[in-house]
Predict the structure.
Amino acid sequence: MNPLDEVSHPHPHALEHDHEKCVSEALGIAERLCVVRDVKLTPIRHQVLELILDSHKAVKAYELLDRIKPLQNNAQPATIYRALDFLIEQGLIHRVESLNAFVGCSCSGHQHELLLLICKHCNEVEERPAPQVMTALSQEFSQAGFVAHSKAIEAQGICVKCREL
Amino acid sequence: MNPLDEVSHPHPHALEHDHEKCVSEALGIAERLCVVRDVKLTPIRHQVLELILDSHKAVKAYELLDRIKPLQNNAQPATIYRALDFLIEQGLIHRVESLNAFVGCSCSGHQHELLLLICKHCNEVEERPAPQVMTALSQEFSQAGFVAHSKAIEAQGICVKCREL
DNA sequence: ATTACAATTGATATAATATAACATCACCAG
DNA sequence: CTGGTGATGTTATATTATATCAATTGTAAT
């Protein structure tokens, strides 16, 4: 790898994992899941998913719109929001509630609701299954007599990589 | 109490607690806290807080704007958002991230970040300190090397009162 | 092949949420 | 009384999201 790639690379912590592999694996899983579920990962949906997976940062809907326009030059807000709705329904991305933004799901097809650690410095979002947290939450729901349909568990702060800089 | 109050009352579960007392206590705590902290709970901020405390539902900013206009007839979006910013800073209300809305904090001055149980049926929001959840979260942050500055822990579903209907 | 149906996308418009920027006002410390 | 700070007034605009209806596409039944 050209050492200058480090400088020009859009991903702050990119050197720490093989991002191309990361993306292609996630796309592969998404494609297979959609086949199994008999739902359509259309070109637009696939492109939006790719754009989201391109970084580990939360991406805004209108950012996606701008970025998809070169590919779909008649894209409109609804184009994006419809794709996002689909991807969320299929558990392929997460909506980051505290940012009104979206991030790829690295564990598509498995657990859909995770702890999201949002770094205010590098803007990357780390997903963590956080099983103890989920167990404690379930217990709390039972105690409260609450039937949970969905949950959002998000923290903003500084990630380990930025803290060590 | 006039039995008809039950019908006309804006709060679905109102009979289950003395809401006037609930509001006046929360206002009292807020007033005292602001004195102690030497910050100003101005008339506008007080009115916005009252409007929010009026129900246990999450309230939208523009709903508040509509409701405050009779009292402050030159109120604008900024009027509301500034009051909301203040009230959030002081821990007197919560922002409900998954609804882009706001709800009163019943435990002002104590713990600021709680589990919010949002009922999709009656729209009320229950705050729970959920200590086990918080402990598990802290442990998860340590494991991840993440320094959390703020967190949002929200669940949508059906509350115990609505489930029993 | 033809038709009918559902799902997807195109296209236009508008609603809902939130902030920027600068002027004015009210208060209090010096 | 004056200068500074925080709060509010005011106008404008940015950002996020949805509604609506038309056109297209794929496909299943006839």
